[in-house]
Amino acid sequence: MPRPSSKTVKLQVRVPANVAAFLTAKAHASGMPVTELGGALLAHAAEAEARDEGAALMLPTVRQVVRQELNLFLERLLDFQIRTYMEAGTARRMVQATAYYAEQIATAKGPARLELLKGYEEKQWSATWAAGRRHFEELAKLQALMEPVHKRVPRDEAPEDFPDETAEEELA
């Protein structure tokens, strides 16, 4: 039997009979004492537990960084979608204005024609903004409602998306 090193400590544990029989059979099959096999298994389990705890300590920080990056991405995506909405709405209105004002556009020449088209574009851009303002205001209201919920209940700690009734009522 190998001598225990000076860095080891004797530890007695109680296990169910079936676990003891399994460990004894496993130790005999591998040619090592049961105490050495049990010690190796306990050391492995303790190291795995320590690694898991270390990862669990880092998890909130990782979540916060990912959340910040996703918020930046979502803001850029929203900006892009708003710009696309505005451009598409203006283009649609420009096609309609061109059809409606075709005679006036056809009679204008040179820089006057370009100025006339720019005027129509500005007018159509404003019309698109006015038509979309209600949607943008609703998005701002939704964002304002969501900010207090996220500040009050960090996602890491919340067992559900809305842990109390007041958060649900604020969104209604």
UniProtKB/TrEMBL annotation:
Domain of life: Bacteria
Compositionally skewed regions (Acidic residues) per UniProt: 158-172
Keywords: Plasmid
Region named Disordered: 152-172
Protein's recorded name: CopG family transcriptional regulator
